[in-house]
Amino acid sequence: MAARRGRIGWAMFLFFLVMPVIEVIVIIMVGRRIGAWQTLGLLVLWSVVGAWLVKRQWRTAWRGLRTALQTGKMPARELTDAALVLIGGALLFLPGFVTDVLGLLLVLPFTRPLARPLLQAAVARRVLAGSGFAMQATETTYDSRPPHQQQDGRAAPGNAAGEEIIEGEIVDD
């Protein structure tokens, strides 16, 4: 596990080191081709269009998530879409053409399904590796006895003798 974190750490370090260099190179190339002011205008236009698109797609993803939760459906796809829109939005807000293209691919509804399996596989690997909720669920033991009763039927030490414990659930209407 430590080796994996080390590899991911190095990959992120290289990404954050190399990506700005690539962005500057691309911006200079575009600037030489169409001019400095046009390049600046194009970057600003990408930001405005990206912000509008992220806002629109976020609403759609949020609405889908709420609908799934209200119907009792497991919202795996909706959560993945919301995460991809969030990541894509962050990439769109970064200045540069390469991050804008990557962000656009994650935000657009017809290209998002291409990235969805990658994110789901990454999350599944993390969960199966023992991080997150899966580890907690495997360590929990389930017992049919009420939490205030020991194996021999006596009250648990935290329960003073004679205290009545009423089990139930709270329902918000």
Automatic annotation (TrEMBL):
Q: Which domain of life is it from?
A: Bacteria
Positions of the region Disordered?
140-173
The secretion signal range is none
List, alphabetically, the GO terms of the cellular component aspect. Answer: membrane
Q: Which Pfam families match?
A: FxsA
Q: Which UniProt keywords apply?
A: Membrane, Transmembrane, Transmembrane helix
- Transmembrane segments annotated in the record for this chain: 12-30, 36-54, 83-108
- Residue spans with biased composition (Polar residues)? 140-152
Composition-biased stretches (Acidic residues): 164-173
Q: Which InterPro entries does this UniProt record tie to the protein? A: FxsA
Protein known as: UPF0716 protein FxsA
